[in-house]
Amino acid sequence: MTTQHAHTDTVTSAELRTSVREFADAEIRPGAADRDRSAQFPRQLIQRLADQDLMGISIPAEFGGLGLPTRAQLVAIEEIARADAALASIYTAHYLGIEPILLGGSDAQRTRWLPPLTSGGHLAAFALTEPDAGSDIASMRTTACHRDDGWHLSGSKTFISNAQEADLVVVFATTDPTAGFRGITAFALPKGTAGVSFSEPQDKLGIRSAPTYTVYLDDVVLPHDHLIGTEGRGGNLALTALNRARIDVAAMANGIALRAWEVGREYASTRRQFGQPIRDFQAIQLLLGEFDARLVASRVTADWAADVKDDGGEVRRAASISKYIATESCFSIVDQVMQIHGGAGFMRESEIERLYRDCRILRIFEGTSQIQLLTIAGNAPSTRSTDY
Description:
Elements: H1 13-28, H2 32-38, H3 43-51, H4 70-83, H5 85-104, H6 107-119, E1 124-127, E2 143-147, E3 150-161, E4 168-174, E5 184-190, E6 196-198, E7 212-222, E8 227-228, H7 234-270, E9 272-273, E10 276-277, H8 282-310, H9 315-341, H10 351-359, H11 369-378
Parallel strand pairs: 1-4
Antiparallel strand pairs: 2-3, 3-7, 4-5, 5-8, 6-7, 9-10
Helix pairs in contact: 1-4, 4-5, 4-7, 5-6, 5-7, 7-8, 7-9, 7-10, 8-9, 9-10, 9-11
Domain Acyl-CoA oxidase/dehydrogenase middle: 125-220
Family: Belongs to the acyl-CoA dehydrogenase family.
Cofactor: FAD
């Protein structure tokens, strides 16, 4: 089975996982290490994801997607991350870019922009972060001024994934600098718009073939109908999109953790010390058991958050819990698998070395682990709640 031409009433998660894993093992994994070394953007694989109907899994069919539950999207993300975390980062950033249009766009905007993004191989991006506005988005300095010929945007964004490669970037700017968070507005920025320029790809520790850029906006003029949602509501739109995207990051973490667990078991089965495979030592067995438990818990938590999202519940707490649990567990698993490898794991040619570099960003982007804990604490159920 392939995911192409899939329908909501015929595809199971198990079938989807089998299909995506076969595709990923055949076409994504073989070049992952080379792409890491060269930091080469895998444009051809973006089109292949579209060919497999994977670019809009949870997006309604009326906008070109498959209309499947978010759990199905998590399966695809996990399997892609298992093969290449950098491609998974590009992929999850694409879904993050889609969210504001899906959530806040008019029917005309969704009909115009979503089908090419969900089924045609077009790529989306999300431009919120600035040099002086990371977690504190109310401090953003990029401005948008309303004039007769359109909206004029000026400023800069940084650490923006997919920015130069994207066909459509959702960019956030303040339309009322005196209003802070309530002055932020979202805009759709098509590829090739005059006044937009990019830095060289930023040199990163990991996910190296998933480029990030500083984006410069020099009096960029956008038509009036490129404003997404309502003026001044872009901050809420951005945070809602990020909350939903955190579940995707959890799936990405689970995919990396799954591959690390596989690598650890394979190495422990072939590495011999004192006349036996090291997997036979209790110390290694304890670690492998811990990896299994952590991965199952992380997957269950991500699925729970996905269900909260699909049921229309308050996703903020659930998404933060899923991201925190999965990304912290992923780092722990990868770190300890490197420990199992000993010095061999520290070598550049080792797969676990690449996984170690790739997984570190997960505890930072889409909200740091500390931001997740603050969000969880600030949204805890009351003592009378049955949400536990």
